[in-house]
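[retry 2/3] Cell division protein FtsL: previous attempt timed out, resubmitting with same input.
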Amino acid sequence: MRTLIWLGCILTVMGLAFWAYRENYRTQAAISEMSQIRREIALMRDDLGVLRAEWAYLNRPTRLRELVDLNFDRLQLIPMRAGQSVELDNIDYPAPPPPPEADDQSDSEEQQP
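[retry 2/3] Cell division protein FtsL: success.
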């Protein structure tokens, strides 16, 4: 009986050691994956900073003014003035289409078998 208890304890310790060994490698793999993701995030943030700088450089008012002047004949862009804006109430929107007549619907329902 005593040998069975010792054998059970030894097998339990070996099972727990194997479980701890596997969990250690799973944890190491998760830590490695997390560090790789953090590196990718850092690279993407750097790329985003470069893209923002390029956007700011391309949207400089002096550069845009030069482009408008160069392409004035084709685009005919002029600066906006305060009097060019209107209230939304002053805009004429197209009228909505009229609803279908009730007679048309009743005729089509009668024709269906």
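[retry 2/3] Cell division protein FtsL: Residues 2-58 form the longest helix (57 residues).
[retry 2/3] clearing retry counter.
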